[in-house]
């Protein structure tokens, strides 16, 4: 079928608007929505910490599975988004819509995997990590609910990526924002119960119910916005038929992203085992680790929002063969990322007591947490450079490079160094593994970026 470049595609702001203004206008809604997302993650832990210390630990141990769910949904979204944006940049609306439809098919496939896990794998997963019955029961109920109803997060992320890929990021502020606000409102109702509405206290399982309701509402909103407000995508039945070549292209970019998130889950699981190995306060240390991940999301989520916007811009301009716009967008991303991370460093260094005080900490929890926040945050500015540059890997079709850098950071460097430091018997020393791993990762990132620049960006200039 012959394709032509339509005026609406030629005039897409990703190819015409000034780079600084474009990046800010596209990134700001994503950053705001992700900050709301980070806020409701912390709210979950805030309310759960009022249940018991075991509930906090159970929530922390759930992270690897939640990360896998988000990783698979994001991986499909990243692969679809890169192909979708590139096709729009080339003026091929047919291919763009086919990418969208096949993205939904892949999301359904991965959801079925987590559906099975929700039925048969939740309790064994917790039983292999803890001997505390309250942690096992509460955690199994929580992660089972999140898995069984995970189709909501798959559809939400894919719908939002379509909006991002066509430059309509403002709508994602409403989808993620509404989902997060609903979660925040519903959390105390389901966790502690609300007698006037006949809601019985559900404990940590109530946090899962609130989460999936928020995800499903956000998913419905994302579909509505794409159908009525996104003319660059056509959600017609014929585009939902699996197309092998399209599926391969989505997976070639998306699978490395999934592996990257899976690596994060393995890292999280491994770090939990290292902390649980400390006899006197293993569960407390694991709880601190889980809380640290909640708090760091306030710093990292804005970077991921910035990155998501940059990926769409870079992919569009790569398809449109505009190398100067690619390099300028990357430079601006690095500057903004550094600013965000330096602010995060200052907050973690100066206000650890206030940050941890949100979660009703015991004296032991507070002492472990203060040390953790101050040591780990040292790596924030280093991470800014690596995260910003990694957008070029996914946008330009080299998602495997992102996998390599993540592998170096979280498995090849972090876990071995953390294990060796744990042998000192000093739990505080383990946190130094994070700055060490980040130095390794950013070094590898710079090497790989120089390769992709020479092979893909510089030839466009020539």
Structure description:
The chain is an all-alpha fold and 462 residues long. It has one domain. Helices cover 82% and strands 0% of the residues. The protein is built from 19 helices and no strands. Helix 5 (63-90) runs parallel beside helix 13 (282-319). The two termini are 31 Å apart. Mean pLDDT is 83; it is low at 1-10.
What's the structural blueprint in terms of helices and strands?
Elements: H1 7-10, H2 13-16, H3 19-48, H4 53-61, H5 63-90, H6 93-120, H7 122-127, H8 133-148, H9 151-165, H10 170-192, H11 204-229, H12 244-276, H13 282-319, H14 323-350, H15 352-357, H16 363-376, H17 380-395, H18 399-422, H19 433-461
Helix pairs in contact: 3-10, 3-13, 4-8, 4-13, 5-6, 5-9, 5-12, 5-13, 6-8, 6-9, 8-11, 9-10, 9-11, 10-11, 12-13, 12-18, 13-14, 13-16, 13-17, 14-17, 14-19, 17-18, 17-19, 18-19
Question: Briefly, what is this?
Answer:
This protein has 462 residues and is mainly α. The protein has helices at 7-10, 13-16, 19-48, 53-61, 63-90, 93-120, 122-127, 133-148, 151-165, 170-192, 204-229, 244-276, 282-319, 323-350, 352-357, 363-376, 380-395, 399-422, 433-461. It has one domain (22-461).
């Amino acid at each position: 079928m012959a394709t032509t470049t339509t005026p609406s595609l030629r005039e897409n702001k990703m190819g015409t608007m000034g780079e600084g203004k474009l990046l800010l206008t596209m990134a700001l809604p994503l950053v705001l929505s992700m900050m709301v997302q980070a806020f409701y993650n912390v709210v979950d832990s805030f309310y759960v910490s009022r249940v018991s210390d075991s509930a906090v630990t159970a929530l922390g141990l759930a992270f690897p599975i939640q990360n896998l769910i988000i990783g698979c949904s994001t991986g499909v979204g990243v692969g679809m988004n890169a192909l979708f944006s590139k096709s729009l940049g080339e003026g091929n609306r047919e291919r763009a819509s086919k990418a969208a439809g096949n993205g939904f098919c892949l999301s359904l496939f991965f959801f079925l995997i987590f559906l099975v896990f929700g039925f048969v794998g939740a309790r064994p997963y917790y039983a292999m990590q803890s001997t505390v019955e309250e942690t096992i029961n509460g955690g199994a109920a929580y992660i089972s609910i999140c898995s069984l109803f995970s189709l909501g997060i798959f559809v939400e992320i894919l719908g939002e990526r379509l909006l991002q890929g066509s430059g309509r990021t403002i709508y994602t502020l409403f989808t993620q924002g509404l989902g997060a606000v609903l979660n925040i409102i519903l959390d105390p109702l389901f966790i502690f119960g609300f007698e006037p509405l006949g809601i019985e206290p559900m404990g940590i399982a109530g946090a899962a119910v609130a989460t999936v309701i928020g995800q499903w509402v956000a998913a419905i909103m994302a579909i509505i916005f794409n159908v009525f407000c996104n003319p660059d995508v056509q959600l017609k039945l014929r585009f939902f038929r699996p197309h092998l070549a399209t599926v391969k292209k989505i997976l070639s970019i998306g699978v490395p992203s999934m592996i990257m998130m899976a690596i994060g889950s393995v890292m999280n699981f491994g770090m939990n085992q290292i902390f649980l190995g400390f006899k006197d306060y293993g569960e407390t240390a694991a709880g601190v680790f889980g809380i640290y991940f909640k708090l760091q999301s306030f710093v990292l989520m804005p970077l991921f929002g910035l990155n998501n916007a940059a990926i769409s811009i870079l992919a569009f301009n790569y398809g449109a063969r505009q190398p100067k716009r690619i390099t300028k967008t990357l430079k601006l991303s690095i500057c903004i990322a550094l600013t965000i991370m330096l602010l995060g460093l200052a907050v973690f260094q100066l206000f650890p007591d206030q940050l941890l005080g949100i979660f009703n900490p015991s004296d032991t929890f507070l002492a472990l947490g203060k040390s953790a926040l101050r040591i780990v945050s040292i790596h924030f500015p280093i991470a800014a450079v690596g995260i910003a540059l990694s957008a070029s890997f996914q946008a330009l079709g080299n998602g495997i490079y992102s996998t390599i850098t993540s592998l170096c950071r979280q498995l090849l460097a972090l876990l071995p160094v953390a294990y060796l430091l744990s042998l000192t018997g000093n739990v505080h020393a383990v946190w130094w593994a994070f700055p060490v791993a980040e130095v390794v990762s950013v070094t590898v990132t710079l090497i790989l970026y120089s390769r992709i620049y020479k092979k893909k960006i510089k030839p466009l200039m020539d």
